[in-house]
UniProtKB/TrEMBL annotation, chain A:
This is UPF0033 domain-containing protein. Residues 7-31 form the UPF0033 domain. Pfam families: TusA. SUPFAM superfamilies: SirA-like. It comes from Ureibacillus sinduriensis BLB-1 = JCM 15800. PANTHER family: SULFUR CARRIER PROTEIN YEDF-RELATED. The lineage of its organism: Bacteria, Bacillati, Bacillota, Bacilli, Bacillales. InterPro entries: TusA-like, TusA-like_sf. Belongs to the sulfur carrier protein TusA family.
From TrEMBL, chain B:
Residues 17-112 form the Rhodanese domain. It comes from Ureibacillus sinduriensis BLB-1 = JCM 15800. GO terms for biological process: glutathione metabolic process; hydrogen sulfide metabolic process. GO terms for molecular function: sulfur dioxygenase activity. PROSITE patterns: RHODANESE_3. This is Rhodanese domain-containing protein. The lineage of its organism: Bacteria, Bacillati, Bacillota, Bacilli, Bacillales. InterPro entries: Metallo-B-lactamas, Mito_Persulfide_Diox, POD-like_MBL-fold, Rhodanese-like_dom, Rhodanese-like_dom_sf, RibonucZ/Hydroxyglut_hydro.
Length: 75, 375
């Protein structure tokens, strides 16, 4: 998977992970992939729902050492 | 316009006093449908905060002008963001300090009644989770039953009342919330009791809670007596306080009965549950006031915020006590059971002392309603 941009929002609490993700996605082109790293556990449900509502595709997410990493493809 | 903080305690007063409130819940839809702040006269609008990042214009017409608006989220951050946006759009608005996390933890102590010799009985209502704990006070001494994990609330309350905590009981090994019982006992030197049949796997010391055990509180020897009443768990034990109150634990609730499946042994325990509800309790005085360890719906609260009802009235009104055929009873309490409480297997492990999660982790485990009943 080719990642076009990495967004590090580790340590930030809700709502910042999604606020920053949205901003970063605005700067990407359709089809490009954003990697989001967060420590906010609520991000799993929220990023999943937000991606679906915005039409983006959540390609994959993983949970390692309390860091959640998401790969989101822009619509 | 201004953004004003509202605490969980403020919201609890609104629930108990039957006040109106408009809740703008900005958590995601699943979280809202699973669990929310319940009030008799509350209205709700659920829009996830991430759908409002571009502005709140579309929801403004849906916000009432004749009642307080409270923005709620999981922890606080998102509700504050949305509240600021609503305020910039010209409306006064409140946000919930600490979010649903603090709502889940908040306890409101309410006096249930007077006991012999000037004693008092308090019910600690955890509105967000539907848990009920109890403190019996008499002449400088206290006993606590089914304490939740916020041990400071109980020890501070005892200090305020100038009483020494002597006995701490758990009616059973809880699966929906983390018990504060043994920690209170450790901190105060009180005796901690747990039914031994529920305690086979626990890794700490406890005093076995057996049928017929009686402790006396204060000089007038106010009686707290144990009555073995299995069914929710095999060790479940009720208490009779001052021959007036029946503390039923998770066996009998106001509008439902305990579920027998949370330790994975529904088929084995359903007969015990039937025996307790249809025989053991039937032998008791109908004028006893039932005080359960949970409520499920806000409708179960009395006007003063307590959860309490005469045993005789429950025999007449509670569906779970009126299933004549044994086969049908078995069906009701073992088939089509509601979803289990969040993280219930881990919570049992914590209550056995096998795992010791951090405070934040404990908060996460306890998110959501208690789900200990079957209707």
């Amino acid at each position: 998977m080719q990642v076009n941009q990495v967004l590090d929002v580790k340590g930030l609490a809700c709502p910042m992970p999604i606020v920053r993700t949205k901003k970063a996605m605005n700067a990407l082109e359709s089809g490009q992939v954003l990697e989001v790293q967060t420590t906010d556990k609520g991000a799993l449900a929220d990023l999943t729902a937000w991606s679906a509502a915005a039409g983006h595709t959540l390609l994959e997410h993983k949970d390692e050492a309390n860091i959640l990493t998401f790969y989101i493809k822009k619509a | 316009m201004v953004v004003i903080k509202m605490t969980a305690s403020d919201v609890a007063r609104k629930v108990i006093e039957n006040k109106e409130l408009f809740i703008l819940d900005v958590r995601n839809k699943d979280a809202f449908h699973d669990w929310k702040i319940e009030g008799h006269s509350f209205d709700y609008l659920n829009i996830p905060y991430f759908d409002l990042l571009d502005g709140v214009d579309e929801i403004l017409p849906k916000l009432p002008t004749d009642k307080d608006i409270l923005v709620v989220c999981a922890k606080e951050g998102s509700s504050l963001m949305v509240a600021e946006m609503v305020s910039e759009a010209g409306r006064d608005v409140f946000y919930l300090e600490g979010g649903m996390k603090s709502w889940s933890s908040y306890l409101e102590p309410i006096k249930v009644g007077h006991l012999t010799g000037g004693g008092e009985l308090y019910q600690f209502v955890r509105l967000g989770k539907g848990c009920l704990s109890y403190m019996v006070i008499s002449e400088g001494e206290a006993a606590i039953i089914d304490a939740v994990r916020f041990t400071d609330v109980f020890t501070n309350f005892a200090k305020e009342k100038h009483v020494e905590i002597k006995h701490v009981f758990d009616t059973h090994l809880h699966a929906d919330h983390i018990s504060g019982g043994r920690h209170i006992a450790e901190a105060t030197g009180a005796t901690y009791y747990l039914p031994s049949k529920d305690a086979e796997e626990v890794v700490f010391n406890y005093t076995p809670l057996e049928d017929g055990l009686t402790v006396e509180i204060g000089a007038s020897q106010l009686e707290v007596g144990a009555l073995y009443s299995p069914g929710h768990t095999i060790g479940s034990t009720s208490f009779i306080v001052d021959s007036r109150y029946l503390l039923t634990g998770d066996i009998l609730f106001i509008d439902s009965i305990g579920r027998p499946d949370l330790a994975g042994l529904a088929d084995d325990w359903v007969g015990d549950l039937r025996e307790t509800l249809y025989h053991r309790y039937r032998e008791l005085a109908e004028d006893l006031i039932v005080l359960p360890a949970h409520f499920m719906m806000i409708d179960e609260l009395n006007e003063d915020g307590t959860v309490a009802k005469r045993l005789g009235d429950l025999f007449a009104d509670n569906h779970g006590l009126n299933i004549e055929r044994e086969e049908e009873f078995r069906h009701t309490v073992t088939d089509h059971l509601p979803q289990q409480p969040n993280a219930y297997e881990q919570i049992r492990q914590v209550n056995m002392g096998k795992i010791l999660p951090e405070n934040d982790e404990q908060t996460e485990m306890e998110i959501g309603p208690n789900r200990c009943a079957v209707r």
